[in-house]
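hey can u check if this looks right to u? its 350 residues, i copy pasted from the old doc so theres a chance i mangled smth
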Amino acid sequence: MNILIISLDKTLIGQDYSGDVLERHLEYSKKAGHLDIIVFSKKGFQKKEISKQLSIYPTNSRIKLNYIFDALKIARRIIARKKIDLVVTQEPFITALTGWRIKKTFKIPLLVHFHGDFWGNRYWLKEKWYNFILLLLSKFLVKKADGIRVVSSGIKNKLIKNGISENKVRVIPTPVDLDKFICKSDNRKGNVVINVGRNDPSKDFKTLLKAIELVKQQKNIVFHQIGAGFDIGKVSQKELIDYYCQSDIYVSSSCHESFGKVLVEAMAAGLALVATATTGSQEIIQDKINGFLVPIGDKKTLAEKIIYLIENPDIAKQMGKAGKKIVEEKFSQKENISKIINFWQDLVNK
């Protein structure tokens, strides 16, 4: 298969190597045949031939308004050289609009990804004034798609409630290389709490910091926030794994999440979880088994559950063990990559 992907992820063109996105797409390309990825970007990036099966094209746009037009020009050049079997877009908005134009012009099947919790989400709608426009755009584009990949069953249920055919939608979580996050040694002290995430309104750091302050009033804890810039900035994946392995409790205060890759990583590292009950965390956390789910925006309950786990280290360890078992059963990287490739093949052969 020849797959054309339209992406927003500048990791693929070398702007940020802290994650595993490039590695993951290399695995896709090995199993699919060939991936051409067009990445929306401003000027200053070079086309990359990562391997014989993976080519990456930055749009090098003068302004963001040119992203779609520049991506379409690159897509036309690619399609002129080879037969493209499927177009895949990272989200149901601007990349999906580009994908739909390609589908319409060249009669190529279109797969749209939902990596975020957008529909029926009042928190997301409030974040930016134009999100309502994006919501309407997504509802138009999703109907034009041949397939929709979502990362949690909660997102699938929302789409079905809005009239999208169940046959179009598949739930396939983001593949995570769990072996990387297995801790080789146990350096845990029982009082180290960690959060990982970029500085984004969806993370609700206001609630998180208030909850941590409440915990500190009663307990001597070490708290690390990685990625947002107000504690520890971006780190390499190796450094991130070290932080996981030195921590005891992972806390998430998000007001909305579609999945929660960091929760899966923390579980693989054996941490107990305390998280707000977003669509994504409900997919991952079994309440009182591998962690606790608390109401969104509830700093008091968030703090109470952290304190409970600090005061009951045996229960925290038990939850950590349960979490490792759950991720092995539900979030295998190999299995989820195979599901993604199978979905592509089904759409190509439809």
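The chain has a mean pLDDT of 94.
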